[in-house]
Specification:
This protein is α/β, with parallel strands linked by helices. The protein has eight helices and twelve strands. Strand 5, helix 3 and strand 6 form a beta-alpha-beta unit.
Length: 286
């Protein structure tokens, strides 16, 4: 399994039914973007039996992506876009949890973009999930301004120049604002959304002030805020935020979500989010 990643409060791969190492050919890759000796793995992510190709040496999805996909809402038959989609795990979970007519993912890194398309293909979702290789700053120009009912994003958490910089280019781009800032992601969401569309964001509580300022500057009014903590009594390390375009001022604070219970297992709500019954065991991160 992918190990615990400092960008997340847990590892999404840790709740997978199982995983296996694969070659590019075995995972349905035509060869583009795959190098000899570059390890890949297929994880069963636990939603509709969907599988996800990941590269452990680069970046593995975490529980924050799963929480965001569960937090987001889109009307039946609506359009939803994921900014900075990576390998496409959020669109996969949104396909399971919503009845959206169109689900798009925008990704700048070519290798991750190719993985996202392969992940759609191995799950038989090529006609249902759509991916765009693009900078988020150009997403509205390419996909249509004001044409989406909802936008979600799990952007890099670290401001440019902040924190320890990874030597791995894929991890560096996923964790740090090297190619697009928080403002760029928020502005892109505002441009994509229709007049009353919703923006759903997962981020770190330490960036809350920056987030609220950016959202209001782009006419995205914060409406729902939920903090996520490792366990009861611990400081939150993830936040979930919903904003409504052109909404009236009124921010509601939802009850805190705790990931682990007093016995060290996942809480019933986290089990529900993953679609598991409480009595079913979930393997923790290695």
């Amino acid at each position: 399994m992918c190990g615990y990643d400092e960008k997340t409060a847990g590892n999404g791969g840790a709740v997978a039914e199982g995983s296996s190492a694969v070659s590019g050919a075995a995972s349905g890759n035509s060869g583009a973007g795959w190098a000899e000796g570059q390890e890949e793995r297929i994880d069963e992510i636990g939603f509709s039996g969907y599988r996800l190709i990941q590269r452990p040496a680069e970046f593995c999805y975490g529980i924050d992506a799963v929480l965001l996909a569960d937090f987001a809402r889109v009307r039946d038959g609506g359009r939803i876009c994921d900014l900075g989609t990576g390998t496409g795990v959020i669109p996969l979970i949104l396909r399971h949890k919503t009845k959206a007519a169109e689900i798009w993912g925008v990704e700048l890194q070519a290798a991750s973009f190719r993985l996202a398309r392969r992940n759609a293909r191995i799950n038989g979702l090529e006609e249902s999930l759509h991916f765009l290789l693009s900078d988020v700053k150009e997403a509205a120009e390419k996909l249509g301004r004001g044409t989406f009912d909802a936008v979600v994003s799990n952007p890099p958490y670290m401001a440019g120049g902040g924190g320890l910089l990874s030597r791995n280019p894929a991890k560096l781009t996923a964790r740090h604002e090297t190619t697009a800032s928080l403002s760029d992601f928020v502005r892109a969401a505002a441009e994509l959304l229709n007049g009353r569309g919703s923006f759903y964001l997962v981020h770190r509580p330490s960036r809350l002030a920056d987030i609220l300022v950016c959202c209001r500057e782009n006419r995205l009014e914060p409406k729902l805020l939920r903090m996520v903590a490792p366990r009861e009594g611990a400081a939150p390390n993830i936040l979930l935020l919903q904003c409504v375009k052109n909404g009236n001022p009124e921010l509601n604070i939802l009850p805190q979500l705790n990931v682990y219970d007093g016995d060290g297992g996942y809480t019933e709500e986290v089990l529900r989010i993953y679609g598991r019954r409480p009595e079913q065991s979930i393997k923790k991160p290695d």
